[in-house]
Amino acid sequence: ENIFDRPRMAPKTPIKNEPIDLSKQKGCTPERNPITPVKIIDRPQPDPWTPTANLKILVSAASPDMRDREKKKELFRPIENSEQSDTPDSSQYDIVDDSTVDEFEKQRPSRKQKSLGLLCQKFLARYPNYPLSTEKTTISLDEVASILGVERRRIYDIVNVLESLHLVSRVAKNQYCWHGRHNLSQTLKMLQEAGELQYGELMTSQHKEQDLEYKFGERKKETIPDSQDRPLLDFSEPDCTSASANSRKDKSLRIMSQKFVMLFLVSKTKIVTLDIAAKILIEETQDTVDHSKFKTKVRRLYDIANVLTSLGLIKKVHVTEERGRKPAFKWIGPGEFPGKTDKLRGHSPTSDPLPGAQRGACAQYQTSATGKQRFTRHASFNSAQPCEATRRKVSSEPNSPRQERQDENCSKMINLAAVCRQKIEEDTGNKACDTETILNSAKNSNITLPFSLLPVPGDSDFCVNPLPQAVFPVVQADVPSFSLPTGISSQASHTSTPAASKTENGKPTLVPSQPFLCFPSSSLFMLCGGLQENNLSEPLPTAGDLGKRSAQAQAAVPPAVCQKRSSCKCSSPSAPVDDEEPAAKKQTLEHSDLPLSLVVPKSPSESPKAESSPGSGCSSAVHLETNNHDHAGPAVPEAANKESIKPLDCQEQEKQSQNKDPDEPSPGNEHMSKENANQPFQPQYLYVQPPPGLSSFNFLFSANQAPGAINLAANQLPSLSVPCVMVPSAALASFPLVCSPSFSSPLSPVPDGSFSAAAATNFSMSSLASTTPVFISTTAVVTPKVSPAPSVDSQQPAHPALHLSPVLTRSCSAVQLDSPVCMGHPVTLLKLQQPSSAPLTPKSIRPAHHEAFFKTPGSLGDPVAWKKNEGSQTRNASSVQRRLEISSTSPD
DNA sequence: CACTCCCGCCAATTA
DNA sequence: TAATTGGCGGGAGTG
Questions:
Q1: CA-to-C1' distance for A747 and B7, Å?
Q2: Which residues in A424-450 are b (16+ Cβ under 10 Å) and which e?
Q3: Residue A338: its pLDDT value, please?
Q4: Which nucleotide is nearest, taking the CA of residue A306 and each C1'?
Q5: pLDDT digits over A289-340, tens only?
Q6: Distance in Å, residue A157 CA to nucleotide C6 C1'
Q7: C1' (C6) to CA (A636) span, angstroms
Q8: Contact assessment for residue A107 and residue A28, using Cβ atoms and an 8 Å cutoff
Q9: Which residue intervals of A318-444 are DSSP H helices?
Q10: How far is CA A501 from CA A318, A442, A831, in A?
Q11: Ranges of each domain in chain A
């Protein structure tokens, strides 16, 4: 009888469930099956039926450890299956009825519930996609395993895959460091490049290869020869590889994971069938490919695929081929990485220019970003890169079995890098200043103050990915633009991505008279230079003021510098992107008083192309250019921005503004000046668009009064998740930042999450598309004007401040809005604001996001010591300076 | 039956 | 030597 019952009760699966239950209620088992007495009683284990179960029991009997584990599992389980909660009860009940079966089912975790994918999701849920660079999250395997209620073995499966993508790194035994997705884009880019080398043609050419085998063989040959798989693979684990790596590691799940991802990145169709992948990945034994091996490989691929699916990088699909339908996976992660090699290369060049020290820093920085020794590989990939040496060094350094340590160092590295950048920027800034001055003089003395926005590459990642190219071009473009603001602007607008268009739409509202700067969004922007307040009649002075403020806000720019020139130059993005943003936010918060105005002179508009230039108004733009050129390398990395930057709106706006102001034939500068002069308060905005596709954010800065020149450094850095930020410098103090939702377009290669800022995290999470706009206002005020303007009157120039919801602004300073509202266009933003600032944020924002958003920003801003410091100091020293100081101290 | 993929043994590595 | 990692493949669950 007993037997009979049981089967019913706990048909097959029960086993696992039972353990759980058992754990809870060991006593229960017996109860449950009073009938079955024996087995149950004897063993706590539930699994009796399956052979394994029996085995297990035996084992457990034999080893206490096992039992313990089981217990633990059980204990944990509850977490997993909250649903099961009733299990015990049900089980008991079950005893009686058949109904039990159902319950069992309910109870039973069911295989799916235990799937690696689900487990991975739980795992991922525990960590932020874009953790603040500052905070290191360590993962304890034991802890996680227990929390998730699974054996450690499963955690290894997850962690190994995550590690292959550099989302985590091993720090020590049982200890992993969570990096989040900041580097993901870079990693993917690398993999893509590597994949192209290895699998290149194959994949592309043969999307379909049905004849796996046949082709397979060929491929193998090809692949193998091209690059040693190892190397590529190693890339995850660098050089050291050799020794340890060999036997065991070669097959490692990590490597397989990377290769698997490579296949997707290389594949045109972005769809890879398991069998093909398995064949390709078997390479080694190419010919031998025995069935068993194949099977094993496929199993492993499932494991990997589950994790990747959890990461939102791929999804399961079915491909129907001649044979029939085959399981396959489609890449749904970030699309192409535009720059790819080019970017890298471009980047490197930029880096070259940097001072040796800096360069070194950069290299390190990169490494750190990468998180590991991959550099070696990188080097290999990009032979072109000048930095190889440094990288190698770096890579070599960490011989440690694992790279983790490197990772640890990464943060340091990053800091150093940041510092270096700042320095560089400063230098450049100076240069820039010069140029600016010149320009200004030429154009109009009026030119707004330079205020520079620098995107700061927050993370090494950024560095890695640098999009220098864009930057340069941009810069140049900018220059011309100066001269021809209008035209430029128009062009810029065109160039600008869709987003730009959006902005454009909004523009009118936004900037009737105000000029805009569009930047490609880099993750971070630093504002350098003082902002000028329009109020301040004089640009310069104002600029100085602004600069201070701005500087504070961004911290990047030293106060002095901040002043027009300096400010311009300051562009160096010392701080990582994250920081910057936060800084900005902080600024806003802290300095709310001060209006942070970005002045985007016309020049910005011109700069359209050169996104980088964008920031600076005329002058600033110039700076940028100069800077970029000169410095190019380092700071520029942002180059990405350059391109991304689309003057679009700005231009248009500028134009408009210009139009308004009849005078200026001249470029944006004029606008600036005019605006400044004419419209003391008219807000000027800087709009930074993120590279298309990515989550980068755009920032809009308006500086009504203050026409400080703004320099934007475009960071390549990964864009923030936030699409756009508008910051109006209200007349004064407050600057609100509004982030418009980025487009989802994943265009840019930019990594999704590149953005370090926490804020990004939330958004980015989804992937690129995060549309959520972020609204940041320091104090509350955003420029009212702005808000209204966009939607309605762009024209209204001067509303000073929008009132952001005080709460938001103050507290957070930044608020996210759902994209809907803000979504793309500044206009929307404006609208939002109008609604009154207050409401806006809240509504749009999703709770979660809000939190996250706030946190990040807040964390950034608030938390950030330096920022705070700034706040206090702010005026005295620019944020930049502070940063420098800080950085200098620390690094030094 | 094919597809998935969980489970956990046990060897390789590491501490 | 003990503990940690992680390759590997049996075989269970699912459709």
A1: 41
A2: bbbbbbbbbbbbbbebbebbbebbbbb
A3: 58
A4: B5
A5: 577 788 888 888 888 888 888 888 888 887 777 767 778 888 887 776 654 3
A6: 8
A7: 42
A8: no
A9: 340-351, 356-370, 375-381, 388-396, 404-442
A10: 37, 31, 17
A11: 116-209+249-331
Torsion of CA A458, A460, A464, A469, to 10 degrees: 30
Closest nucleotide to A295's CA, by C1' atom?
C9
The token pair that represents A442 in the structure block: 């030429």
Rg (CA), chain A: 28
CA pair distance A160, A156, nearest whole angstrom: 6
Closest residue, CA to C1' of B15: A173
Residue A296: CB atoms within 10 Å: 14
Contact A568, A562 (CB under 8 A): no
Predicted pLDDT of residue A202? 56
Which nucleotide has its C1' atom closest to residue A153's CA? C6
Tell me which amino acid residue A174 is. Answer: N
pLDDT score, position A198: 67
User: How far is residue A279 from each of residues A194, A290, A294, A552, measured CA to CA in Å?
Assistant: 18, 10, 7, 56
- For chain C, which bases have at least one atom within 7 A of a protein Cβ? 4-14
Task: State whether the beta carbon of A158 lies below 7 angstroms from any atom of strand C.
Answer: no
Strand C contacted by A144 CB (< 7 A): no
Residue A690: per-residue pLDDT: 33
Amino acid of residue A568: C
Q: Shortest CA–C1' contact from A316: which nucleotide?
A: B4
What is the Cα A628 distance to its own chain's centre? 23
Is the distance from CB of A485 to CB of A664 less than 8 angstroms?
Answer: yes
Six-digit token string for A351: 């880096």
Distance CA A760, CA A772 (A): 10
Q: Is the CB of A51 under 7 A from strand C?
A: yes
Distance A334 CA to B8 C1' (A): 35
Residue A776 to residue A369: CA distance in whole angstroms: 27
Q: Does the CB of A161 fall within 7 Å of any strand C atom?
A: no
Write the DSSP string, A674-720.
Answer: HHHHH-SS---EEEEEPPTTS---EEEEEESS---B-------SPPP
Q: A399 CA, B14 C1': separation in Å? A: 15
Question: In sequence order, what are the residues at sequence separation of 6 or more whose Cβ sits closer than 8 angstroms to the Cβ of residue A404?
Answer: A169, A170, A171, A172, A175, A176, A177
Residues A606 and A651 sit within 8 Å (Cβ to Cβ): yes
What does pTM read for this prediction? 0.38
Q: Of A409, A338, A399, give the one whose Cα is nearest residue A367.
A: A409
Report the SS3 class of residue A736. strand
Number of H helices, E strands in chain A: 49, 17
Q: Beta carbon of A50 within 7 Å of strand C? A: yes
Write out residues in chain A with pLDDT < 70, as ranges.
Answer: 1-109, 198-251, 282-289, 323, 336-892
| Region of residue A354 (left: phi > 0; alpha: psi -120 to 50; beta: else) | beta
Place of tokens 């049900």: A90
From its phi and psi, is residue A696 left (phi > 0), alpha (psi between -120 and 50) or beta? beta
Q: Distance (Å, rounded) from C-alpha A43 to C-alpha A62?
A: 12
Query: Among candidates A590, A542, A609, which has minimal Cα distance to A870?
Result: A590
Question: Which has the closest alpha carbon to A470: A601, A338, A332, A639?
Answer: A639
Instruction: At A316, give phi and psi (nearest 5°).
Output: -80, 135
**Burial of A295 by CB count in 10 Å (0-12 exposed, 13-18 middle, 19+ buried)?**
exposed
Q: Which of A127, A63, A242 is nearest to A758 (CA)?
A: A127
